[in-house]
Design a protein that fits this description.
CATH architecture of the largest domain: 3-Layer(aba) Sandwich
Number of helices: 18
Radius of gyration: 26 Å
CATH class of the largest domain: Alpha Beta
Strand content: 5-15%
CATH superfamily of the largest domain: Ribokinase
Largest sheet: 11 strands, mixed
CATH topology of the largest domain: UDP-N-acetylmuramoyl-L-alanine:D-glutamate ligase
Distance between the termini: 17 Å
Helix content: 40-55%
Strand order of the largest sheet: 1-9-18-17-16-15-14-13-10-11-12
């Protein structure tokens, strides 16, 4: 699913209007109907009064059309319109005329004194400004947003929280803090970034019938990975397969006090479908792997590695950063003639020993969390700048950079960036990244191209975390639960659509 810029979103609307054909006000009606259906089916309505705040643009027109549809369902609605002494857009005016025939509860706000009293049973609907905004809020609009935020009432934003810009940094600017955002037609980049999380709330994508030909024919560097995409990447097994068909992986991980990282990576690698797994670990901890992961083999010296035997290396979880760890990492990278996975301490060693970059095989996969990314590539001014930096570094180093987070981002050397759509806050727990490393290493060993392995691996990791919630809570979720749920995740993507 492509993620378009604000100008492209306007073009997509116009393309749909001209090619269906459907009128502009008709497309607005679709948007309002999608919002109305979500509210009536997914939001608690008993005893609630909806206060819909509208600007005079098309986002405000969506709000007016929504007010009419809610009134048709006998849901109490009051409408407040920001008034600056000029007419609204043509579609806004058309919907205002329709709404006047249904209710007298239409109020105009010209000063702060006209801000309404909001009772405890009020639900705020933010239809002030949409994805066309390109500058910070100011004056009466900014004051109204501050007033709405201070109410701490449930707030539903239509398309984008007012004040948030679709594809520009704005976290320091005033914006509505929504509890729910009903984004129309497609995701906006701003809704996928951590810096806007407090304003976005729970984001719901509502299809409004935009013409699919525009999406197919229009380039965007950003995409949101969905189930249809990973189904195309997934390779079902042949009935005549044997373990030799699925590769031999090596996981180099673990040190004193951190052998759990090796165990988690190893179990996840095996659960991802690899044919054979060998763990390179300190000799004194050999028994831990032999007992905890009996399906894996183990070696204790990089000199024992025959690179022709292996299809992938996963390097770094719990490895440590002492001189011995650096020596081992240098030695293993020196014999790798295929893409590898670098995580955790391997990344920390790379950050302080940049000469190692010359030994990182092309199209390797790096899996930093934000702090590790910062150590590797320096600080970024904001999340938008960080995305751009990830894409630039992926291109410069010919590697895949998986920037981990709620919407984990895969930066590819071809300039494309892929946000993940699976996962939950319960996965913010120690060892979750070790599990991801194991999955990626296993997929590479099976012959998945690095880009497919990165995107599919991140999706499976998040999906496993989601499926684990069927028996766990977000608070109780452990990294081992994620690895244990990989079977259910593979079953999900293997099911025919």
């Amino acid at each position: 699913m492509k993620i378009f810029s604000a100008p492209q979103i306007r073009e997509w609307d116009a393309y749909t209007i001209s090619h269906e054909p459907v009128s502009s006000v008709g497309l607005m009606e679709r948007a309002a109907l999608a919002c109305s259906n979500w509210i009536t089916h997914s939001f608690p309505l008993l005893g609630k009064i909806f206060y819909i705040f509208c600007g005079k643009g098309n986002n405000g027109g969506d709000g007016l059309a929504l007010a009419r549809l809610l009134l048709d369902k006998h849901i109490p609605v009051l409408v407040y319109i920001l008034e600056f002494g000029h007419k609204g857009t043509e579609d806004f005016q058309a919907n205002l005329e329709r709404l006047h025939k249904l209710t007298k509860e239409i109020h105009f706000i010209q000063t702060e004194e006209l801000f309404p009293h909001l009772p405890e049973n009020a639900v705020i609907v933010d239809a002030l400004l949409g994805s066309g905004l390109n500058r910070p809020l100011e004056g009466l609009t900014a004051s109204l947003v501050e007033f709405l935020n201070k109410s701490r009432l449930p707030t539903i934003a239509i398309d984008l929280p007012s004040g948030m810009r679709a594809d520009q940094p704005c976290s320091k600017d005033p914006m509505v803090h929504a509890t729910h955002t009903l984004t129309l037609g497609s995701y906006k980049l701003g809704l996928l970034l951590p810096e806007n999380a407090n304003a976005s709330g729970d984001v719901q994508l509502l299809p409004i019938g935009l013409d699919s030909a525009y999406e197919a024919d229009t380039y965007s560097p950003y995409q949101l990975t969905d189930l249809a995409q990973v189904k195309r990447y997934f390779r079902p097994r042949s009935a005549f397969s044997h373990k030799g068909n699925f590769g031999h992986a090596l996981v180099m991980a673990g040190s004193e006090g951190k052998m759990g990282a090796c165990v988690l990576s190893s179990k996840a690698c095996l659960r991802s479908g690899v044919g054979l797994l060998t763990c390179l670990i300190p000799k004194e901890f050999l028994s831990i792997i032999q007992v905890c992961v009996p399906e894996a083999m183990a070696i204790t010296d990089p000199g024992q590695i025959d690179p022709t035997t292996y299809k992938s290396f996963g390097l770094g979880p719990g490895l440590g950063t002492d001189p011995h760890a650096l020596e081992q990492l240098t030695q293993v990278l020196g014999i790798a003639n295929f893409p590898v996975v670098l995580d955790a301490d391997a990344l920390n060693l790379l950050a302080v020993n940049p000469s190692l970059w010359k030994s990182v095989p092309p199209y390797s996969i790096l899996t930093p969390h934000p702090k590790e990314f910062e150590r590797l590539f320096g600080k970024s001014e904001d999340d938008f700048a960080q995305l751009q930096k990830a894409l630039e570094q992926a291109s410069d180093h010919r590697c895949y950079i998986i920037l981990k987070g709620h919407r984990t981002f895969v930066a590819c050397p071809d300039g494309s960036g892929h946000f993940n759509s699976t996962g939950n806050a319960g996965m913010a727990t120690g060892g979750s990244g070790d599990v991801l490393t194991g999955i990626l290493t296993g997929l590479l060993a099976q012959g998945y191209p690095p880009q497919h392995a990165a995107i599919l691996g991140v999706y499976l990791h998040g999906l496993s975390g989601d499926l684990a919630l069927s028996v766990q809570s977000m608070e109780s979720l452990l990294s081992g639960d994620i690895a244990d749920s990989l079977g259910a995740a593979f079953q999900t993507i293997a099911e025919p659509q």
